[in-house]
Amino acid sequence: MSDFLLDPEVIFLNHGSFGACPKTVFEEYQRWQRELERQPVRFLQRELPGLLADARRQVASYLGANANEVVFVANPTFAANTIARSLPLGPDDEVLISDHEYGACRFAFEHAAQQKGFRVVQQAIALPVESPEAIADAFWQGVTEKTKLIFLSHITSATALELPVAQICQRAREAGILTMIDGAHAPGQIDVDLCKLGADFYTATCHKWMCAPKGSGIFYAREDRQHLVEPLVVGWGWGAEKTFHRENEFIEHHEWLGTYDPSAFLTVPAAITWQNQVVTKEVRQRSRDLVHSAVHLAAQIDGIERVHPDSFYYQMGLIDVTAKCVDAEALKSRLYEKYRIEIPVIRWQDRIFIRVSAHAYTTQGDIQALIQALQEQLSPQNS
Predict the structure, then answer these.
(1) What letter would DSSP give residue 240?
(2) What domains, with CATH codes, occur in the chain?
(3) CB proximity list for 18: less than 8 A, separation 6 or greater
(4) pTM given for the model
(5) Run means of pLDDT, 10 residues per run, the chain, 383 residues
(6) What range(s) does the Aminotransferase class V domain occupy (predicted)?
(7) Helix, strand, coil share (%) of the chain residues, nearest 5
């Protein structure tokens, strides 16, 4: 915990929502902010293009992509809106998603569907899952001759499930269907190689599991698909009188949106360095073991069930409290107010899950505190 700025009085088991930034990375973030304010004109007009290019090269290397295929965005919601509004989808077209997708990104496609007339199809992936192949087969049942785009999470937010996106991207390419993967929870939690993954488009946060400052994310577009992408915000990078001339139009169109604070983007290389030095395979495995411990111990409480086999989740896991008939918001509030445990209680379909996250700062004592709290709060007299 000493490496982070987290409140030591809070048991923080919710890294998955917004992440947590290490002190050294946050100091670098503040250094960039001070550099910006020292001489804004010099920084924004003369230095920023080169600084962003260097940061892009480093994050692209970390994710197994080419530097000219990646731009920084505030978050995956921004990238999802960009694709939903860019692609030439009409009344005869369908966008296929799963019923595990993050609400804000799903809303982006549903809103665009209202404007353009295409249809958003949600394909169910039932829980518990049996194998990656079974997930891919279940999802593929939603594909029709009208399917033009597949939008799918790499690791789902509500259900903490790794989906077999490489398999699905390969099937989609063979069928002539575009793919966009929401990797909000993937980089930093699992290894990501975008060239091998095979998606046409990919978006991710850097502020979650990569532990960069809030408001830093990436949007990847394969070079041969970039002509399909229009900027969500038209600014100086789009017109003939460009403020900066960069490597290609994809970067020009999407990188300069007007005056903004780029400090979070420029800090991503420091977060990558911190990841490489601190978040070793051993640290990731320890975090995963702590999550497994939480899931296994909770399942020993009468009425609490497991959701996924261990192989399907990493540093986030689910505790199914549906049978306890609890009020999700009330339970979340009690866990925080009485026990100072910050953890999400999620409604998904007709089920209620507690999603536990672990990172370098998590201890077995944190897990034991959660289990004790659940034993008390979910006892017959409280449930």
Answers:
(1) S
(2) 24-275 (3.40.640.10), 280-377 (3.90.1150.10)
(3) 207, 208, 214
(4) 0.95
(5) 89 97 98 97 94 97 96 96 97 97 97 97 94 96 98 97 97 98 97 97 97 97 96 81 64 86 98 95 95 96 91 94 93 97 96 97 97 90 56
(6) 27-370
(7) 45, 15, 40
